[in-house]
Design brief:
It comes from Aerosakkonema funiforme FACHB-1375. By secondary structure, the chain is an alpha/beta fold. The chain has one domain: Alpha/Beta hydrolase fold, catalytic domain (Rossmann fold, 3-Layer(aba) Sandwich), CATH 3.40.50. It has eight helices and ten strands. It has helices at residues 27-31, 62-71, 89-92, 101-119, 136-147, 168-172, 202-215, 235-249; strands at residues 3-12, 17-25, 39-43, 79-83, 129-134, 154-158, 182-188, 192-195, 198-201, 223-228. The strands form two sheets. An eight-stranded mixed beta sheet has the order 1-2-4-3-5-6-7-10, with helices on both faces. Strands 8-9 form a two-stranded antiparallel ribbon. The longest helix is centred in the middle third of the chain and has 19 residues, at 101-119. It is globular, with a radius of gyration of 17 Å. The chain starts with a strand and ends in a 10-residue tail after the last helix.
Amino acid sequence: MGYIHIIRDFYSFPEQVNRTIRIFTPDAYDQQPDKRFPVLYMFDGQNIFAHPESAVWDTWCANTTLERLASAGTIEPWIIVGIDHLPNRMEEYSPWMGGRGNLTAEFLINHLKPFIDKTYRTLSDSQNTALMGSSMGGLISLYLGKTYPQIFGRIGGLSPALMLGGTQMFSYWDRRTGFWSRILLYVGSKEQYSFYGIWLDYVPITKDFYTRLKSLGYSEDELHFILAEDEIHHETSWQKRLPEIMTWLLAPTASRSFF
């Protein structure tokens, strides 16, 4: 189902390092050569595809899920671009506390996205450009959604590590962006665990952030919250709920049709 092209030496000038990029094109990409496609960028690219060269253990199976939904007519076909994380993932995905999130942003905005838009038949406007990640990947997704709303119109923050940096993400989202938005927040009801002796409870902080965004005036069409009963902080949980997540986040807007 579809095709995955892996680039193992995509150079990031801001970070001065080679990155691995995994690009999934759906079946429709080859079947409809005159059509342009929306693009979903996902962090932790090594964990997102059902593919022999993905992570050894469980993955999101984002490619097979998207193809099933597109074949059923639930959503339209999307290109998915997976960005493998670097060795120090905490720094890479952190926008503050000495993190390098600004360099990750510069790479994505000024180098990777222009390459994807030049190389593939994409729809490059914000309504057709989505960003999704989990945990630290969810944190950097929400940061980028606020910083670059004119580029990323759809943001999926799954189990976001909002506790990193105290209340900084709450303060950062101080107003509506003024751009078209579709923001999804997800958390599993059993996402409580100890991380190197630090107790992390994702449920209340994700609920609080949803309340924060609602207080800024985001409507139900713009903001969606999923509390997944009995789900944990793991790829198997995100994989299980991905059909629901993609169905809402990637739904076509009234301003454009499927084809």
